[in-house]
Amino acid sequence: MIDAKHIETLRALLGEKGLLTEPADMAAYETGARYDKGRAAFVARPASTQETSAVVSYCVKNGIALVPQSGNTGLVSGSTPDSSGQEGILSLDRLTAPFALDRVNRTLAAGAGLRLSDVNQRLEQAGLFFPIDLGADPRLGGMIATNTGGSRFLRYGDVRRNTLGLTVVLADEAGTVLELGSGLRKNNTGIDWKHVFIGTSGAFGIVTECVLNLEPLPRQTATAFLVPAATDRVPDLLLAMEDALGSYLSAFEGMSKNAVAAALAHVPSLRNPFQGGIVPDFVILAEISRTSPPREGEQPLDAVLEEVLAAIWEHEDAPLADAFVGPAHEMWALRHALSEGVKHSGRLIAFDLSFRRGDIMRFLDHMKAEMPAHFADVTICDFGHIGDGGVHFNLVVPADDPRLADAGFESSLREWVFKMAVEDFGGSYSAEHAIGRKNQVFYDRYTPDEIRRLARGLKAITSPAPLGCVTF
Questions:
Q1: pTM greater than 0.70 (yes/no)
Q2: For 4-94, CATH number?
C-alpha cells in the first residue's frame, strides 16, 4: 500500500469518479485477458489530457510507478500491475473526448479511451471506418501502444499506417504534454516523433488523444472459404488470388481444423458450413471488397470471386482443392468466434507470431509434426493473418493436466516455441501484442545491445520515471 496522503491528493486531482481504491472496484483492472492478475495501489481514471498530466507529474515527483491500461485485452501481461500493491494503474477508460470528424480530410480526432466498436459505430453514418478489424474490442490508446494489425492488414495496413497525430503525456516531473503530428498526411519537416510512441507498449509516454486516418466503408463485399490442395500450397493460392484480384483482396485469413472445431463447439448459434459437417484440416477465409456502390451492368463481386476461383481451380496442379462463396456475416462470425472457442477448450497458452509469408505454413507444419514428441497432449489451435504473415499460435492444455501446477512447464513451452519461431524460422515473437512481462525475457535475449542502448537513452529523455511493464 502507498501512503494515504498520496491517495488523498490523487482524489483531489481527479474527483470521486476518477480514483478507485476499493478492492471490488479495482478487480477488473487488476485482471488481464489471459490469466494474469496483479494488485494495484489505486486505479487513476483521468478524463482529460490535463488531468493525465497532473496525475503523472504527481506520481513521478513522489516515486509512484504507473502502469498505463487501455482496454486490457492484451495477451502478454502488459497492462496489469505486479503483485506488490505498490503500482498504480492509469486507465484510459474516461478519455473519450474529443470525437471530431473531418469528413473532407477523412480524419478523426479522438480520445484514446474510445473503444474501436464505438468509433466505428459512430462513423458508420458518414460512410467511413477506422480500418483495423479485430475479434476483441480494444481502446484506441492500446491499439496505438501495440501497433495493432488485424484481419484486414493485407489491404489497409496497421495502426501505424493509419495514425496521423498523437497527444502524449511523458513520465517526467512536469507531466509534459507533447502534440505530435496533426491531420496532415504529408509533413516532412523533421523527425516524425509520433512513431516513437506507436508500438512501444506505453513505455515512452501515455497516449491521450490521436488523429486517425479513416477509410470509406466497403459497399460491396464477397467472401469464400477456400480449402488448399495442401498446406504447402497456401502461398501459391495467396499469390494467385493477389494476381487475379489486386486491391480488391482485403482479407486472407487462415483457420486450422482444431480452432474451427473449438469455435463451433463453443458457439451453438454458428452454422457448420462444411459439407457433411467435416471441417477441413486448414481453411482460408478470403474477402474481396469495393468501396463504390453497385453500378448498372457491373459484375457483382460474388460473381467476380467465383470466376477467379474457377480459373485457379482449372490450372494444372491447382493449389485449390475446394471452395465455396457464402454470406459474409456468417463467414466472419466463424472467424471472430475462434479466439473465444479456443479459450474455452482448456488452459490456453497463446502466442502472437509473425513470419515472412512464405515461411508461415512451413512453421505450422513443422510444429504440428514436432509437438507430440516435445509436449504430449498439447493441442495446436492456430489461426491468423496468412496474408500478412501473422499467426495466433494457440496451444491448449487440458484443464486438469497436472503439468499446469508447475510454473516451469509453461516457461519451457514458451522457450521452445520462441526458439523455433525466431531462431529457426526467422520470425518475430510478437506480431501485434508488443512486449509486456510475458515477453520481456525474449526482448532481452533477441534485441541487439546497440538497439537496447538506444532505447534506454530515448526513454531516459522522454519518460525517465517508471512507466508500464517493459524494461528497455
A1: yes
A2: 3.30.43.10
